[in-house]
Task: structure prediction
Amino acid sequence: MNRLLEWLDDRTGYRNLLNETLYEPIPGGARWRYVWGSTLVFTFVIQMITGICLWAAYSPSVQTAWESVFYIQHEMYLGSVVRGMHHYAAQVMIVLLALHLMQVIIDGAYRAPREINFWLGLILMQIILGLSLTGYLLPWDQKGYYATQVTTKIVGSAPVVGQELQNLVQGGSEYGHHTLTRFFAMHAGLLPALLIFFLVVHIYVFRRHGITVKNPNRGPSSDFWPDQVLRDSVACLGVLAVVMGLAIFKGAALSGPADPSEAYSAARPEWYFMFLFRFLRFEMVEHFGQAFGAIYVPGAVMLLIALMPIIALVRGGHRFNVIFAWSLMGVIVGLTVLSLIEDVRDVEHQAALAEADRDALRAVELASGPNRIPIEGAGKLLREDPFTQGPRIFAKHCAACHRYDGHNGRGRMVMTADDDTGIERPTLPTAADLGNFGDRQWWRRILTDYRNLMQPLENAGYDVESSIEYGMISWFEESVEVLTAEANQADVDAMVEYLVAQSGRPGLELNAELMERGEEILSTGSLTEGEISTCDDCHSEIGGEFELGTDNVGIPELNGYASYTWLKAFIDNPGTEQFYGENNCMPAFADKLSSSDMDLLVRWMIGDYAATEVKPYNSKVELLQIEIDDSSGNEVANADEQPAADSE
Result:
């Protein structure tokens, strides 16, 4: 072995290289505060190794990027751990970078003759930030897609050459496939190559001048090996433990596939850029423009940092540099915390985050399902999913009057700002809540609680009380006492079972015996105790089939009620004689909804979509009811306060 090593040393001179590397003298002895540079290099090595592993499975195109990341995350062996390590190592690298920079400034390690090395470190910092920005887009998910658009727009706001730079970075005037490929080229090729080059030069210059020691007499001198190597190794193992823990127990997030047609209000930069995001939202900064807040001010700050070696030549310059560094760090931390607190308190943002999480879970569900990902790309998964798109269509076209479990279909309450105070309060619905439309609970309320179910009509000016003498209200008033009697509850169950069967919903489990009894009651009106008017006194004869164009008298058809065909025909034109006729106050949507949107909306309402474990939006029924009760109470109170003559 010795002869082999002698031969190798003769050919390569590796022993001199080892001596030069390991036996650097450290005046005052090894210290824990010197570990930050080594941990940064170690973290970059983690990034390189995991990045190459990810590269082996990643496909950079708008139709395959999200799909390949999904494969890495959910299919590839240990893929989620590798991706998580890459993701969190990037974030840890930012923290270590800040600590290293502060240590260099506090120790004065930027002063002559080390100013060149300090400037090299600043270049490395910009490259690391560039790696973070370019990597954010690569999953081609909603979060990265919309957040990176902000970055390219900031580039475009640069003076003189801004637009040309933006076109160069994003691969043309449009944001799309070439943007992704160019960001990938920068992230996996150009920037790592630059980082390695400047890192080698940085380490070379650092070793030329040696470590900066504020008090070389604090203890006996030692060599880099083994004392400082031991401390560096322990620190690197600590970094590895943190990265591994986050990768295994938290994992890297993957939001829904990028969809340019779908707005994404939950987009935010990574936490280490949140300070700049918050700074740009200050009214004064917005007044001066994006270039001022995102280019001029940060540029001036970076220039001041770069001038620190020169400023230190002036008496008191080093003290100024340290105070400025601590102040800047305080501002960055303060703005970051402020931004995070504001986001937590922002109801709309939290709702957008919740919806983004739902979309992410749903996309993974569909991609993991029997149909997998279509050849057109993962974007099609959510675009053609009734469970995802139905609530959006409902919120856009239906929530002006209806609610869905008290909200607009997307988990948000419909709000209106007060003209005088500007305070937002829930808007009262003017039509029935459709949260359980056509199911057993809906029909039970139709039969036993019709007045309260249709109470929102009063908010539209419809006088329920004056309509008691005719229509469904009249039937309800005559029948409610009989239907709520204890002896007739089994009969109510039978009626509900028959009526809910009309929807023909997917997965609906029915009791044939109950259905038969229900049809009999609805046709004859005979209950266990007492009688009710039969449905076919007004509606079409019970037991038939729903057919478009059937002649009726402006009273909704019960046969096929809430089925796909019935509901589509109703939404198309509720004013036909087959539904409400002249009594209708709901607009027709035949010309307002495309055939695909109509299909998605109806299928969502009847539950015709792939099974899901995604939890429904939280119900807002109780919150809305409180507002309704308060509104009723206020109206009564205001009426009581009026003079008698006015009230008459």
